[in-house]
Amino acid sequence: MNAIEAVVVEKAKRAKEAARRLAYLPTTVKDAGLLAMADALEAQMAEILAANARDLEAGRLKGLSGALMDRLMLNEKRVKEMAQGLRDVVKLPDPVGEVVAMWRRPNGLEVGQMRVPLGVIGMIYEARPNVTVDAAGLCLKAGNAVVLRGGSEAINSNSAITRIIATAAYRAGIPEGAIEFIDRTEREAAQVLMRLNGYIDVLIPRGGAGLIQTVVKTATVPVIETGVGNCHVYVDEFADLSKAEPIIINAKCQRPGVCNAMETLLVHEAVAPAFLPAIAQRLKERGVEIRGCPTTLKFVPWAKPATEDDWHAEFLDLILAVRVVRSLDEALDHIYRYGTKHSEAIVTENYTNARRFLKEVDAAAVYVNASTRFTDGGQFGFGAEIGISTQKLHARGPMGLKELTTVKYIIFGEGQVRE
Amino acid sequence: MNAIEAVVVEKAKRAKEAARRLAYLPTTVKDAGLLAMADALEAQMAEILAANARDLEAGRLKGLSGALMDRLMLNEKRVKEMAQGLRDVVKLPDPVGEVVAMWRRPNGLEVGQMRVPLGVIGMIYEARPNVTVDAAGLCLKAGNAVVLRGGSEAINSNSAITRIIATAAYRAGIPEGAIEFIDRTEREAAQVLMRLNGYIDVLIPRGGAGLIQTVVKTATVPVIETGVGNCHVYVDEFADLSKAEPIIINAKCQRPGVCNAMETLLVHEAVAPAFLPAIAQRLKERGVEIRGCPTTLKFVPWAKPATEDDWHAEFLDLILAVRVVRSLDEALDHIYRYGTKHSEAIVTENYTNARRFLKEVDAAAVYVNASTRFTDGGQFGFGAEIGISTQKLHARGPMGLKELTTVKYIIFGEGQVRE
User: Fold this and answer.
1) What start and end residues bound the annotated signal peptide (chains A, B) (predicted)?
2) Which residues, in sequence order, are CB contacts of A9 under 8 Å at separation 6+?
3) I need a labelling partner for B255 at 20 to 30 A (CA). Which of A94, B106, B212, B289 fits?
4) CATH of the domain at A13
5) Nearest residue, CB atoms, A247 vs list B216, B247, B417
6) How many domains does chain A have?
């Protein structure tokens, strides 16, 4: 075992030991830990901002883009928001111990399913230091230990933050090892973590498509895939166009850089002549570049022609691909072919078309007459979210505290044996 | 792409196409398919037995063990049981389409979770040809396509069976490609399957520890790990020994070769003098070899001394490791250290000890006063099972039809947009 491997294994071991006790720690103790973490972030603000300044300076030297520098940057307001985030988690109900179901078998055995923590969660993520605090808080509330591996750009910020919150949590009665941070930036450290079966129960990568693909391809530990969203809005021939317009503007423009933003608009040919020129104009006013199919170009002559790549693209920007389709079936085929199974919406007043879209589209979230931007733990009412799963195992869509747990069967007998 | 890869990809593609239609196929059509498959197995019995005879002949030449030959062997009775298994699946409720929960948000959006199929399931399994039929039936009922990859010993039997059931299903209205069988026995075929992200949604390996470890280490497709069980029964100082005896005999002897059989018995020192000699005698009468800790050897002088390996062992045989412990804590530590998180039982009349065992033991199934042998889909009331998950993601413990599904969020709006 080399030095990097030794560091990662040692941290994972400590997390695993902590997880055993965390699993049945009373909610009151976990909440006291969260509040202590929040207070410590504010009390040690200067230390965090100093560490962040070192990251920002290194980022400037490396020539990081303005967007990346902004994501990396902490100030008093942002640190206070991180602390408030932890206090908000205190208010959420503890998912651990809930008996999801219990039934009696003919032989008198009572069989139940109880919600329990996953154990040790490995988080591999990119630049934003607030993910460090969010993840640590949510994992702790759900009774999990967490091993954090942030991006190298934020190494000083993340080191300071985790030292501060882990110490505060420990002093408040949380087992040592509950929050571990890997302070080695070598790629090998992440690779070791991804293959630590027996120590890490689940890996949650958060970041760009490249990071997530690397984790999926490298990990032997089970992974919850998050992220990529090539989302569509389909304006049906029976759409109420007065609903379609605000939904489209919202889905594309309210926050274009996130995974639940719309990337392709599909419009039924029956409404295209009336609707496309108008909506294109509204989008143009908001700075949206349109890349259209040949039919779209007839109605929106100033649009660029769309390429095959555009139908596949997650632009994460003020760019929209637009295609005119001849039927609901053609829309469903397009979504099947190009979609990433994240969030898909139909705008229609037709009962049968709405039902077909709901049934036939295979995605984490399928909408009728609402913006795809609602795919979010907060918007769904979960109070918090650790990511949006785009895989089908375990969790699909926004993941809240419940998705950070598993279940175990509990069986009560009075001496039963199997015949 | 070489020839083997081409074969596997082609089959997975067909399965993926079938899965799209299977996802919303009416239950009546799926049930008609299952009944047609059952009828075809019986009608084409001669063809199946002839294919099986070729596998048995090859097995004899290869020198397969008696146990393996028995698992491989089909006869009229076994084929009829396979057909009956399919008819039993018809009687189970269809899990697809169930709305698990639905709630209204303050903005009027209605958010629900609907059960939907996983998509394409890859099954990699060993000798027994009945797994072919079981898996195909359960996957179909839950709306999934399945790509089957059985062991090379059963290649002729599995080829004949899948050809017969897939044809029967297709004639009954099931989409072509719903049941695909990989008839290449090269190791590479399995490896290609394990890495077909984008085609295969979930892999379920069934077989020995070696197979499962290979899949976990090789796969990039999400895996549901099944299987290994180093299960314990702990006889507490407050045990009702008249309950302990039948539970222990049952857990060890009723079917020693399965994953939910007991492998290690833990006995509190306070009851060891009275209990150990008696239970050891009963076990000996049933042919059980005992490997004990030094204290056990005092009470059972004829037992063999246990080695460190014995505490780790999944014997799957009439062998039992026995350890005397000084406390519940010592029992919990032993289980934490050596257990495989499958099935663990305490025998006690003490309320607090029972509660501590239930809370503190991390396993798929935790029992009070009942045999570990109940960890089984049929025994839990699921009607059927596709395996027993020993991982924490998605499914834990016996997996029935419900575990072969995922959920999607369905959202009903009237034009809502995000603020």
Assistant:
1) none
2) A1, A192, A196, A199
3) B212
4) 3.40.605.10
5) B417
6) 2
> B363: which chain A residues are within 8 Å (Cβ-Cβ)?
408
Residues A241 and A341 occupy one common structural domain: yes
- B110-117 and B99-104 beta bridge pairing: antiparallel
Are B197 and B60 members of one domain?
A: yes
- CB neighbourhood size of B334 (10 A): 17
Give A388's contacts in chain B (Cβ within 8 Å): none
Q: Three-class SS string for A17-52?
A: HHHHHHCCCCHHHHHHHHHHHHHHHHHCHHHHHHHH
Residue B276 lies in a domain: yes
Burial of B302 (0-12, 13-18, 19+ CB in 10 A): exposed
Amino acid at residue number B256:
P
Q: How far is A165 from chain B (nearest CA, A)?
A: 26
CB–CB contacts below 8 A, A to B: 197
Q: Do B394 and A394 touch (CB under 8 A)?
A: yes
A404: nearest CA partner in chain B:
B393
What ipTM was predicted for this assembly?
0.93
Question: Within this chain, do residues B214 and B235 fall inside the same structural domain, yes or no?
Answer: no
Measured between beta carbons, the chain A residues lying within 8 angstroms of B391 are 222
Same domain, A174 and A235: no
Same domain membership, residue A246 and residue A217:
no
C-alpha to C-alpha distance for B203 and B393, rounded to whole angstroms: 13
Task: Name the DSSP letter for residue A223.
Answer: B
C-alpha angle B377/B361/A139, rounded to 5°?
95
Q: For A411, which of B336, B367, B407 is closest by C-beta distance?
A: B367
With beta carbons under 8 A apart, name residues in chain B contacting A214. Answer: none
Percent of chain B at pLDDT exceeding 90: 91
Of B119, B242, B397, the CB nearest to A409: B397
Same domain, A120 and A198: yes
Do A120 and A148 sit in the same domain of this protein? yes
Task: Tell me the C-alpha distance between A335 and A339, whole Å.
Answer: 5
Give the pLDDT score at A225. 87
The verdict on residue A418 lying in a domain is: no
| Chain A residues near residue B197 by CB distance under 8 angstroms | 216
Candidate from A103, A365, A373 with C-beta closest to B408: A365
pTM value is 0.93
Tens digits of residue pLDDT in A76-114: 999 999 999 999 999 999 999 999 999 999 999 999 999
Average pLDDT on B173-181 reads 98
**Are A80 and A185 found together in one domain?**
yes
B381 found inside a domain: no
Interchain pair A394, B393: CB under 8 A: yes
Domain of residue A292, residue span: 231-378
Please give the radius of gyration of chain B, using alpha carbons only, rounded to the nearest integer: 24
Instruction: Determine the distance in angstroms separating the CA of A49 from the nearest CA of chain B, rounded to an integer.
Output: 31
A386 SS3 class: coil
Residue of B21, B338, B357, B362 for testing the chain A interface, max A β-carbons within 10 Å: B362
In A, minimum Cα distance to B409 occurs at A365
CA gap B84, B38 in Å, rounded:
7
Residue B360 is part of a domain; what is its CATH number? 3.40.309.10
pLDDT (mean) for B332-355: 97
What's the average model confidence in pLDDT over A218-232? 91
Residues across chain B? 419
The tens digit of pLDDT for each residue in B264-308 reads: 999 999 999 999 999 999 999 999 999 999 999 999 999 999 999
pLDDT at A157: 97
Residue A128 is predicted with a pLDDT of: 85
Neighbours of B76 (CB within 10 A): 12
B261 lies in some domain: yes
